[in-house]
Amino acid sequence: MESPQSLRSCAITALRSLVAFAWIAWAAAAPARADAPLFDEPARAVLLQIASGEIADGRIPGAVILAGTVDGISAQWVVGNRMLRPRIEPMTADTVFDLASLTKVVATTTAVMQLAERGKLALAAPVARYWPAFGAHGKAQITVQQLLTHTSGLPAEPPGLGQASHRATPAALLSNIAGISPVAAPDARILYSDVNFVVLGVLVARVSGMPFDAYCRKFIFAPLGMTDTGFTPNPARAARAAPTTPDPHGMRQGRVHDPLASALGGVAGNAGLFSTAADLARFARMLLRGGLADTDGAARTRFHRARILREESIDRMAVPLTADASPPWRGLGWELDAPLVANRYRLPPIGAIGHAGFTGTALWIDFVTRRFLIVLTNRVHAINGGDAAALRAQTLALLSSGVGPVSPQQIAVALPDSHHALEQAARPPVAAGPVRTGIDVLAARQFGMLAGMRIGLVTNRTGFDAHGQRTVDVLLHAPAVTLVRLFSPEHGLDIDADEAVGDSIDGSSGLVVHSLYGKTKRFPPGALDGLDALVFDLQDAGVRFFTYETTLGYALEATAAAHIPLIVLDRPNPLGADRFGGPALDAGHESFTGYFPLPLQHGMTIGELAGLFNDARHIGADLRIVPMEGYLRSMHFADTGLGWLPISPNLRTLPALDLYPDVALLEGTDVSVGRGTPHPFEWIGAPWIDGAKLAAALNGVLDEARFGPVDFVPTESTYRGQLCHGVRIVATQSQRMPGRLGVSLVATLHALYPQVFDFAATRDAIGSGATWQAIGRGDAPLALRSAMTREADAFRPVRQRYLRY
C-alpha cells in the first residue's frame, strides 16, 4: 500500500492534470419529447462546472453522467480520472463501475419479479417456504415482499462481518445469515438491510436452479444487450474498471468493494454487480418502455423487443408499499422519489424511482416525464473517502430545473396504482399531544356558537382537527351549521402555488373556493353577502411578513363592513409565543407583507393578533376567538403534539420554519434562499458568493448558528438552474434573539460584496429604517442588537394587552 505522502502526491498530480484529462463527450440520440426537455447549452456548461468543481475539491476522482428519455440517450458527460493511484488513468465513457447497492435493484429486484411473474416465487409467501433453514430464530413469518421493501426487521448486516469475513466460506456465511434473529418486528418500520438482499439472491438461485449470476446474465443482461454488465468481471473489463480502495491483495479494480459481497465470492444479491453508463441506460429505457427491451447491435436479432418484465411488475416497484411509514417511501426494491421536475421538492415521493450505491453510483427513472439520469463515480477512490452526494444532488436539481411543474393528478395518470398513496400523502396527520386547537374546542362544544348559521370559511390545508379531518369537512358535517362559501389565502387551498391563484372548486365539498390571492387580495364586494358569520382557521408562521396575517386583517375589515362576526379558531405560534423581537416595521410602511407595525417575530397566536389588529386599527369587527386548550406560551410546534403540514410551498419542515424569519430578510435580493432545493431557508447562495469565505465570516460573528459551505442548483425562483455557492445554516440555540441571525446575514453579505449584493432590496423585509440604515453604515453588531432591543421594548406593552395564554 502507498504511504500517505505518496497518496497526497498522486492527488496533487491528479488535480494539476485535471485540465489535461477532463473532457466532455456528447452522445447523439433521438430527440427528447417536447414535454420533457433535457439540458440546454447553458445547463450543460453548468453541469461540467459542477463535476469539475467536485473533482477539484477532492470529493470524486471523476464521473460519467448520462441523461436520457424513453427514446434514447440525450447527453453524456465524461470528466476527470477513473484512477488516481498507483497511476493516473482518465475516465472514459466505457469505464466499468462497481455498482454497489445498485445491484439490489438492477439485478436482484428484477430477477425476483421475473420469478414471481412465472409463478415460481410468491411475494406474499414466507421466505422459509423456499429456504427452510431461514425460518429459524423468529424469522418464520418474514415474507419475500418484506425483504424487498426493507420491512423484514433484519439487521443491516450479519453479525461478525468484519475482520473474519475474508476467512469465512460463502456456505458458512450463508449459514450465519440463516441463523440471525430479527431486530424489529416485520412491517414495524423500514430498516435498510444488506441481509435482505443477500437472502433474495439466495432465493433466486434456489428457485431457478441456477447460480444467481448466471440467472441474471441469461434472463436480464443478455436480452437487454448489457454486454458490459455482470459479476466478477473478466480481465478485459477489469482493466477498464474504476478502482475503489486497496486491500491486502492490492488495489481493488474489477474486484468488489462491498465486504459482504466479497465474502460471498463477489456474487451476492446486495452488491457485486459491475456495469457501464450505456448498459444502465438500456436497463432504464426498458423500465420506461413498460418492460420491453430495445437492444441494438449483435443482440438485436435475437432479443429485439424481448419482454424483461410485465408492466404490472414495474408498477409495483414504483408505487409505495411502505406509505404508512415516514418518507422516503419504498416500492418493491426501489426507493421512491418525486418526478424530476422543477417543483419536485413540493410533491409527495411518488412518480420516480431511484437508488444509490456506496461506491458513488446512482440511478433515477421518472415515469411521469419518462426520463432517466445516471451518475457514476468511484468516490471511495478519493484519498479522503470522497463524497458523491453533492454531485448527485446538484445534477438532479439541474436536470429537474429545466422541466415545468407537474401536479399529483399527472402523477396519478402516469402511475394509476398510486392513487391510494397520493390520497394518503394529502391526508392531514392526527394529533398526539396535549394541545387542542380552536376547531377541536369548537367541536367539543357541539358547534354551539355557530348553531343555525350560514357560514363562510377562510382556510387551507393547515386547517384540520386532531383526527386529521379538514376544517372544511368538519364544518360541512357539523349539526345545525351550513357551510356555503370557502376562501383561500396565498398559495391556495392546497398550498401548492407560488403565484396568483384563481377561484376553484373544492373537490370534496363541491364548494367554490374564492381566492384571496388572485386579481385582488381583499374580499371583493358582495363576497360575504348571505353569510351569518365568517370562520377563520389558518396556521400562521409567527413572522411579521407572513401574508396569512394580512389576510386576517382583511377578514376583520370585511366582516366589520358586512356586520357579521369573525370567528377565529386559534392555533399555536409555531416559533413559540414567549419570544418576540427583531427589527420592527415602521408606521406608514404597511403593505400586504406587513399589515401592522410589528417586530420581526411578534410572539403572538393568530387569535391574539386578531385582537390586536381589531383594536389598534380601530376596525370594530365583532371578533370572537375560540381559544386553544392545553397550550403554553413556551411551546414550540413540536411540543404541542399537533400534526404538521407545510404552511407554504417552501416552509415544509420545522427546521426551515425556525430559520425563516431571519433568512427571509434576503427575499427579493439577488441571493437564493434555497427555494427549489431540499432545504429552503436552510441554504443561501448565489453564483458570485464564495461559500467558504462567507461561512468563515459568519462563524466569526455568530454563536447561535453554525455555517458551512454548500453548492446547490435551485429548481425555482432566484438563480433557477444555475450553480450557486453559499452556506448551509444550522441553528445551535433554540432561544436565540429574534432577528439577530437575519440582520447578521444581511450585514455580512453587504460588507463582503458591497458592489454585488442588492442591499437596497432588504429595506421592506427589515422594516425598520433605523436598523436598515445602521446596517448600511456598517455599525457594530452590538449597536444593531441594541437598536432591535429598543424596538422590541416599545412593542412589549402593546403586545401584553392581548395575550390570552
Overall pLDDT metric? 91
Question: CATH superfamily name of the largest domain?
Answer: DD-peptidase/beta-lactamase superfamily
Any idea of the CATH topology of the largest domain?
Beta-lactamase
Largest β-sheet summary: 7 strands, antiparallel
CATH architecture of the largest domain: 3-Layer(aba) Sandwich
Distance between the termini: 67 Å
Strand order of the largest sheet: 3-2-1-12-11-10-9
Structural class: alpha+beta
| Count of individual domains | 3
Low-pLDDT runs: 1-36
**Helical residue percent band:** 25-40%
- Sum up the overall morphology in one term: globular
How much of the sequence is in beta strands?
A: 5-15%
Task: Tell me the Rg in angstroms.
Answer: 29 Å
Report the strand count: 24
What is the number of helical segments per DSSP (H or I, 4+ residues)?
A: 27
Pfam families: Beta-lactamase, NamZ_C, NamZ_N
Domain Peptidoglycan beta-N-acetylmuramidase NamZ C-terminal: 659-805
Protein name: DUF1343 domain-containing protein
Keywords: Signal
